[in-house]
Design brief:
Length: about 425
């Protein structure tokens, strides 16, 4: 999820702030994003979790978002007990509050007359102070999932860490700050057979009127990800956001082969928000890693109770049932997963990438054409241009490059960083 490149230490001129009009917002973003975006971190093919890249702050003007809230789902408590696989009950990780405000944070928010000025002016004052105090100059650290207080102290982290910090500070300033989940379309890792789900989290400031623009919300993104054009955005509850925090910590423990520690963090994540289906998928994979296909099946079935069309859970069911020798049942899920694959342009894109990597350029061209038939995307045309060039088809290569630029330019690009400065009516 290659290494991330740190930003140059460039600071805004005195008095440089965020103003209301579109052009000024873009200039401010450009000033902060002085380095081109680095290569994307390779996403784990096993887990769904929040990934983000170069540390910067980008602003987007938006219309209304709605946070979905559901009744708590019932589930088998044995799935998160741990005794079946560890021999004894595993206690959940400590229930740390990712949004707790420290005394140092309160002192930082001692801005003169802050409570007496309009919402947008409060927002601008907060952003300016964060910039002046050099909160955005450190290198992005993909595995640095911190609480708000920890992020404030060390001034570095990933998207979860910085979003925790900003939500806590914005609420301290009296702003209505909410978490927003940005969910990329699922893609397949051809070799592993697992789905890749690249998620990202940022902040929405509600009920804020931007002078001269008319938007009623702002989105603040500290680690701008070049998400695909089909990325879905929705406001989520604090519980959902906190569950992502613990899920990231679980993955950190798994990287260290600390299965019990990973399980404890995942248990805490599920206790925090059992309706987050991604957590059950992650638990399923964790059980698979530890060699218990039966428990993995239980976790995937729970995810499917939340969403019967969850492609990650369907693919996981096929694998866990196959590992148990229940081939007829596995085939049902495998067929369903294959049907989703064939309708998913990013699956064909992944096949094309793998074929290109293996110098099978004709296969790459066939696969990428299938992706383009389903959906026209700039990255698809870029790969087709590369495959066509390798096959000596200059006409197709040139046409593909033209179409790549056409679809890429549909998004506003500022110095290599994609910014969505838009109003949704």
């Amino acid at each position: 999820m290659s290494g991330a490149t740190g930003m140059d230490r460039q600071h805004p001129p005195s008095g440089y702030g965020i103003t209301a009009d579109r052009a000024s917002l873009c200039r401010w973003i450009k000033h902060r994003a002085n380095a081109a975006i680095p290569s994307a971190q390779p996403v784990s093919p096993l887990f769904q979790f929040c990934r983000c890249m170069t540390l910067l702050a980008a602003i987007a003007l938006l219309g209304g978002c709605v946070s979905a809230r559901y009744a708590t789902m019932s589930y088998d408590p044995a799935l998160i007990d741990g005794a079946a696989i560890f021999g004894s009950t595993v206690e959940p990780a400590p229930n740390d509050n990712p949004l707790a405000v420290s005394d140092a944070m309160r002192e930082f928010m001692d801005i003169p007359r802050l409570g007496q000025i309009p919402y947008f002016s409060r927002f601008r004052a907060l952003m300016n102070k964060l910039v002046e105090e050099e909160f955005f100059v450190n290198q992005y650290e993909p595995n640095a999932t911190y609480t708000a207080a920890q992020t404030f102290e060390v001034r570095k982290g990933n998207c979860v860490a910085y979003t925790n910090l900003f939500v806590a500070l914005a609420r301290e300033a009296g702003l209505q700050a909410e978490f927003q989940l940005v969910t990329g379309r699922p893609a397949w890792n051809v070799e592993s057979g697992y789905l890749i789900k690249n998620n990202h989290i940022n902040v929405v400031i509600k009920n804020i009127r931007v002078p001269g623009y008319g938007a009623d919300e702002l989105t603040v993104d500290f680690n701008m990800v070049d998400m695909d054009e089909d990325a879905r955005r929705r406001v989520i509850t604090d519980a959902h956001a906190n569950s992502l925090f613990f899920a990231n910590l679980a993955i950190d423990r798994l990287r260290l082969d600390d299965h019990r520690g990973a399980f404890a963090q995942m248990k805490r994540a599920i206790l925090t928000e059992p309706n987050n289906q991604a957590l059950w998928n992650n638990l399923g994979v964790l059980y698979s890693v530890m060699g218990d296909a039966k428990l993995a099946e239980g976790a995937y079935r729970t995810a499917l109770k939340l969403n019967g069309r969850d492609k990650t859970a369907i693919a996981g069911m096929a694998k866990s049932l196959e590992q148990q020798g229940r081939l007829q049942e596995a085939e049902k899920y495998a067929t369903l997963a294959k049907r989703y694959q064939n309708r998913n342009p990013y699956y064909h894109f992944a096949v094309a990438q793998q074929a290109f990597h293996n110098n099978a350029f004709e296969d790459a061209l066939r696969a990428i054409n299938e992706a383009i038939e389903i959906k026209k995307r700039s990255r698809f045309y870029a790969l087709r241009a590369a495959a066509a060039e390798q096959l000596g088809n200059e006409t197709l290569a040139e046409e593909s490059l033209r179409l790549q630029h056409k679809y890429r330019n549909r998004k506003s690009r500022v110095n290599g960083v994609n910014t969505h400065v838009q109003q949704i009516n």
